[in-house]
Design goal:
This protein has eight helices and no strands. With 219 residues, it is an all-alpha fold. The termini are far apart.
């Protein structure tokens, strides 16, 4: 590889590393906010009356059927016309959260459905209420089933944060673009950004594998 490319990548590294916490912050915020919302949507689709179930299904269908980039534009540029103006960070977090919640809801719903019906019947026979059965019996088992998909969602979310650069959030990708605008050398900064994304994803994958092993009986 050309020395000039390596040098430009090395010179861009401090700027990109300084923006990396914001990228991680976006991903973690969207995951932390999206998980309870996704759980709520999953429970609505499984147990709510038909009208609420249909609303939840429509939300999931809309999010899964439209590009995340369009959703970011709708939230950041569209909501002000309805009287709700958000900062770039607020708009980015909200769009990522809504997107993440829809996908997580499908993961959680499938995990809940994978728990044997006998587990629920045994809990009822012991006198547990429906809420207690869900909280103490079903969800802990579903969490073990859902863990691999949830980990993959977080890894994908880290990469999806690059899209908030279109609304001027100076995260990792936007930082690389700013360096390129100053140096007119695109390969090095983009390569450095790619390596940082790769390092983060690899680290999260390692943590995910260790959690899976710890939660596996006999692991």
């Amino acid at each position: 590889m050309d020395n000039a490319i390596l040098r430009s990548a090395w010179e861009a590294l401090p700027t990109l590393l300084a923006a990396t916490p914001l990228t991680l912050g976006f991903a973690l915020a969207a995951m932390v906010l999206g998980l309870p919302l996704g759980l709520t949507v999953a429970l609505l689709r499984l147990f709510a009356p038909p009208p609420l179930r249909q609303v939840a299904a429509l939300y999931v269908s809309f999010i899964r059927g439209t590009p995340l980039l369009v959703q970011i534009f709708v939230v950041y540029y569209g909501l002000p016309s309805l009287g709700l103006t958000l900062t770039p960070i607020q708009g980015g977090v909200l769009a990522l959260t809504l997107n993440t919640a829809a996908y997580l809801s499908e993961t959680i719903r499938a995990a809940i459905q994978s728990v044997a019906v006998g587990q629920r019947e045994a809990a009822y026979s012991l006198g547990l209420s429906r809420a207690q059965t869900m909280t103490l019996v079903i969800l802990p088992q579903a969490a073990r089933v859902a863990l691999p998909s949830l980990g993959n969602s977080l890894i994908g979310l880290v990469k999806d944060t690059s899209l908030v650069s279109v609304i001027t959030v100076v995260e990792l990708l936007r930082s690389a673009q700013l360096v390129i605008a100053r140096t007119f050398e695109p390969f090095g900064p983009y390569l450095a950004a790619a390596l940082i994304y790769w390092a983060i994803s690899s680290l999260l994958e390692l943590v995910q594998r260790r959690l899976e092993k710890r939660l596996t009986p006999g692991g």
